[in-house]
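Journal club side-thread
Mid-discussion, someone asked how the predicted structure for our own chain would compare to the paper's figures. Pasting it here so we can look after the session.
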Amino acid sequence: MKGSDAEQIALTYLQRQNLVLVAQNYRCRFGEIDLIMRDGATLVFVEVRMRSNAAFGGAATSITTAKQAKLLHTARHYLSQLNSEPACRFDALLLSGSHGQEIEWIKDAFGE
C-alpha cells in the first residue's frame, strides 16, 4: 500500500467522524502536513502513518521528535498565512494491517 492510499483511507475515516478537509499534502520549505482538517472550530493537523506490521515499534514510534519539530514548523508556516489563529491540535492517524484496516486515531498526539 502506498502513502497516498493510506492518506485516502485516513481522510475517509476522519470525514466519517465529521471532520472537514481544509488542505491535503500542504507543503512548504519546512516540510509537509498530510491532512489539515476542521473539527468544529478547531484546526487539526493530521500526520498519517502506515505500518503493515508492528516490527520496529509500529506506526506510532515512527513519529519521532525530529518529525514532530518539522510538523510544528510547517504548521506555524501555514498559520502565519491566516488572518487569525484558530484553536489547533496535532492528531496522528495510525493505520496497520495489510490493507490499513486497523485504525488508531490519537487526538492531541503532540504539541507545544
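Post-session note: The mean pLDDT is 86.
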